[in-house]
Amino acid sequence: MTGPRLAGRTALITGGGSGFGRATARRFVEEGATKIVLADIRLESAEAVKAEIEALGAEALALQCDVGTKENCDKLMDDTLAWLDDKLDILVSNAAPFHGPQPFLEFTDDFWFSDINVQLNAAFFLGRRAARAMVASGGGSILYTTSINAEGAGAQFASYVAAKSGIAGLIKVMAVELAEHNIRVNGVGPGPADTPRSVQLVGEETMDEFRKKFPIVPMNRLAAADDIANAFLFLASDEASYITGQNLMVCGGVTAYVYNVPKE
User: Fold this and answer.
1) CATH T-level assignment (fold) for domain 10-250
2) Which residues are part of the catalytic machinery?
3) C-alpha 16: how far from its chain's center?
4) Is the pTM of this model over 0.85?
């Protein structure tokens, strides 16, 4: 394949103000995307990435949005489709709330509903609206940030694991039903990664140590944001034209591992 992989295409990226969303927006534009909508709960973060995208030669729209309600998701899609003249080629549903670990027996309702609303419910509301627009325009690619936790437990993160597992199931249903409309639906499941969210979780000093080595991962390193962005780029491109309904683990081998026989 020659030429930019996303030449002339448009995209909406939620959680587009930092981490995986920011890196994905940049990679899309580097590969020819011409219009990017960046939605983030922090408008100043989305505006900063908008400036980066424009410096790369594409158009960008920064929108403040908390995708934790249907009304906000609908408003986001209304504004996005109006700016794109109803031609949305790619959706990357990536936004996720942040909270630390909490034991299941003490798990709060607020934590539970935060993850379910911002991740799983938004995945459905945004995906449905995007799919309807793509049916009318001839097709597209719907992408979700899942997690290695869609395949296994993360202790003390019950709502996060439940939300990511739910999205992984939703991807399969959407892929099967939307295939006849030339709409592909896939997910990217990051493993341990070097992102602002990880720094929030463990602190900068600990992250500095993790950046040197991370032996929990067979490849002994954290994922960079571009590792995830490159997976989204591939799945959004025509190189993945026969791939749908998949949840691609980008995890350095974590999900391939079960256990080693103890030496003692």
Assistant:
1) Rossmann fold (3.40.50)
2) 160
3) 9
4) yes
